[in-house]
Amino acid sequence: MGLTGKTVVLCVTGGIAAYKAADLTSKLRGAGAEVRVLMTASATEFITPVTFETLSGFRAIVDTFDRDFAWEVEHISLAKAADVFVIAPATANVIAKAAHGIADDMVTTTLLATGAPVVVAPAMNTGMYDNPVTQQNLATLRARGVLLVEPAAGRLACGDTGRGKLADTAEIMHVIERALTRQDLAGRRVLVTAGPTQEALDPVRFLSNHSSGKMGYAVAARAALRGAEVTLVSGPTALSAPRDVAFVPVASARDMYDAVLSRADAQDIIVKAAAVGDYRPAEEHSEKIKKAADDMTLPLTRNPDILAALGGRKKPGQLLCGFAMETRDLIQNAQDKLRRKNCDMLVANSLRDAGAGFQHDTNAATLLFADGSRETAPLMRKEELADLILDRLLELA
Ligand code: PMT
Known about the structure:
Low-confidence stretches: none
Oligomer: single chain
Mean pLDDT: 95
Helix content: 25-40%
Largest sheet: 8 strands, mixed
CATH topology of the largest domain: Rossmann fold
Strand content: 15-25%
Shape: elongated
Number of helices: 13
Radius of gyration: 26 Å
Number of strands: 19
Bound molecules: ligand PMT
Strand order of the largest sheet: 12-11-8-13-16-17-18-19
Number of domains: 2
CATH superfamily of the largest domain: CoaB-like
Structural class: alpha/beta
């Protein structure tokens, strides 16, 4: 999402993992980025420029003194054009040069000239990676604000086992997206709830709802990408936990209540996107209930209202954002919830709006604020709505 229209200058340096940069090029382009590939001369021993030219749609540049290019000073043009500068794989040699400002080829001269955020994904033999000089060079780059994508551990191409395998493409893409994202939530602690709750009736049955968790997971993922320290308390869903969040799985409303309330005081922002069951079976049977009569009445009892409890004990400066899912009288019901539960903001969505609410990748909502103002959010991807919610919460902070 954050890569559309961005220029990624991808530098490929000479290691066996150079072939994996082809996949990275293809995925970056698929995500909407323009990819300009630079290669060290030794990288071309492992994979040819033609591969990158085919995948990126641009000529791959290797030699500083190549005279076939239209641009007058190629490395300066690319240094300026870059929204993000990526070295993947980065050898010990190029890391050492980067740490010490040595500029003796296209990759290192362009790196020295760029003002774009830099992402470095090391890949090398484990002994080279663990060598204190490499570690010191990496620490120098980290201290300078370079984002490092830690290599994975495993069996390396040289036969050794240890750290040094190039991180997988998804991980590198994630760090690139982070480099392109304004860290406007850095230093803030954000707790998000997501998904349904499950209220057990007996060992085989439960009461639940249709929440997929997509809305809450989108808020958690975007908040983490924007630099927040995020805790995601989630009911059972089919989704994987987003990267860089502390994940707390729960099942029932009472589990969610305990998980949220015990962490609430440490949070700057709490977003309650979960669809919490209002009632649970009055009794949880220890054995499977057998069928008997044609009719059966199931006594239910009220669950604690987590949002109301949070609203009742809000710390000064803490922001509380609730959701309301309605099938009728959306604004009226949402306004009532905002006031009763002492929220700063409430996101009202209706099951009656096409593409909104449960399960969809999109949502449409009205944002209601404690001062009585409102904002309409038309149908958009849940990630975009998550960003809008976080933008508005930051404005209230
Ligand atoms: O998960 P998805 O498939 O992506 O769907 C997203 C969603 C529709 C679940 C989400 O956008 C949404 O609307 N979540 C809130 C659903 C809901 O439970 O609404 P409600 O009107 O019943 O509750 C109002 C608020 O009180 C919510 O913030 C809810 O988390 C909270 N609540 C409700 C009951 C309860 N016992 N404790 C609570 O904290």
